[in-house]
Design goal:
Blueprint lengths: L1 E6 L8 E6 L2 E5 L16 H7 L5 E3 L5 H4 L2 H7 L5 E3 L1 H21 L10 H9 L1 E3 L5 E3 L5 E6 L7 E7 L2 E5 L26 E5 L10 H17 L4 E4 L5 H14 L8 E4 L1 H9 L8 H10 L9 E3 L5 H6 L5 E4 L8 H9 L6 E4 L8 H6 L6 E3 L5 E3 L3 E4 L8 H11 L3 E5 L3 H11 L4 E3 L7 E2 L9 H4 L12 E3 L4 E3 L1 H4 L2 H7 L3 E6 L2 E6 L1
Parallel strand pairs: 3-4, 4-5, 5-6, 10-11, 11-20, 12-15, 12-16, 13-14, 13-15, 16-19, 20-21
Antiparallel strand pairs: 1-2, 1-22, 2-3, 7-8, 8-9, 9-10, 17-18, 23-24, 25-26
Helix pairs in contact: 3-5, 4-5, 4-8, 6-7
Length: about 525
Amino acid sequence: MNYIFLGGASEVGASCLLISVAHRHILFDCGIRVNQTGTDALPDIELLKQSVPTLDAIFVSHAHADHIGALPLAHAAFPQTPIYTTEPTQRISAIMLANAVRLQKDEQNEDTIPLFTQETVDATIAKMQTLNMSEWINLWDGWRVKMVRSGHILGAVSILLETPEGTYLYGGDISTFHQKTIDGLALEEIAGTQPDFMWSEATYGDGNHPARSSEENKLAEAVATVVGNGGSVLIPSFALGRAQEIILILRDAMISKNIPVFPVVTDGLVNSICSVYETLTPYLGAKLQKHLENSQQPLFYYRNFRRARMGEQEAICKNETPKCIIASSGMLTGGASVTYAKGLAANEKNAIFLSGYQDAESPGRRLQELAQGNTLAFSDGTSVVVNCQVERFKLSAHSDQGQLLSVIKQVKPKALALVHGEENALSAMREKVGKNYHVTCPVNGQMLDATDKPECVSPKIQEQPGKKERVDFDVEITDTGVMIDEDILSLDRWKDFADGKHTATLKGERLIIRKT
């Protein structure tokens, strides 16, 4: 099995993995770098087209932009290739990609052209085939796939792929813990599978999260304190996943009377995604489904919660009624959250609470590191003096180092690659994982073989017996047996293999003989 990352290897963004195995070519995800624009945001689509004459399948793990944002370009390059994903991911992808088309039009000038059109998006969505989670689906002779709930966002999956030449696990983005909206990773479905190779994220590979429930309470109480003191709070949120979590965190805290009731306004792409969530209740977490059944209320409904209307942002900023605003984008790279940040940041009564991963080059990361009273520059060239309170809450939908290590230990891969992380996170995870596993940290554009010597091999692994030399040779199959050249039979490597008992499996077009 050969593989190459066209994006997303030693970075968080533009996730795109191409593998070639058993004479077929498979693509996993095709996202963008959300903090960049134009071709800089894209995975290497040209390298994809140069690397393979055709694609047999595209698998999509979930609908975040860093995993689907360039999918229309992959579809345009290989229009006959089926795209496999879950129903929630298909439905949400349609909204996310349509929004990307609108943003490209808004940002278009004489020096730029849109990366893709709504027509391309429609064609991409039409090519998607939805697969049920937790079920083995036959693809071709000797091939099958299982979509395993990964717990990251609604519809997100890890992808377990069986081929005639081995079993492979594409982890995608993983959350082992239950969130307000969804249940966590279905670990029981991949534990002990011992795939020949696994690709694991390492987004937070350099540390561990605080207890989820305490961080949720901390956020709710902090928002209530600012509002109680006459200020307003902006929570820039990823429109997909994080925003829905925060809405329910505040709602549940109000229902349980841990905080008083105050106005909550949602805006931007957040509202469109919330509407889709409300039509996908069978995929929500078991606890939330039970709440909906008992309450008979809309999913994101509560007394003072409302969705902003088109063109209302300036009026909301000028309205001095204390409130909480939940708006995309989560890294302040664009969207409604930037408008609200400009309107609220200068007032020391207000607050901006960051709640998720902030890319190293994003305005959100700069805000996180900014001293009060300094100026924050946005991607559109504008800026604002930040006098308001700024605080970060760790509500990530990614597993931390300890949780990832536990997943890897239970899956028991024969080898793995660490990806989807910045340098510090990858290095920290590699140091931990390398104590017990063959592990590598690939870079974009690097063609690798799953059997290549890993860059990090622990003494414990080195003490294990070395890998047997590979020998390729022709055979002739007759009615009476298998004919092998005498030169092969004289090799010590063959004699070592032939000595003892064996089992054979006829799998697809391959006869596999194993020494027992």
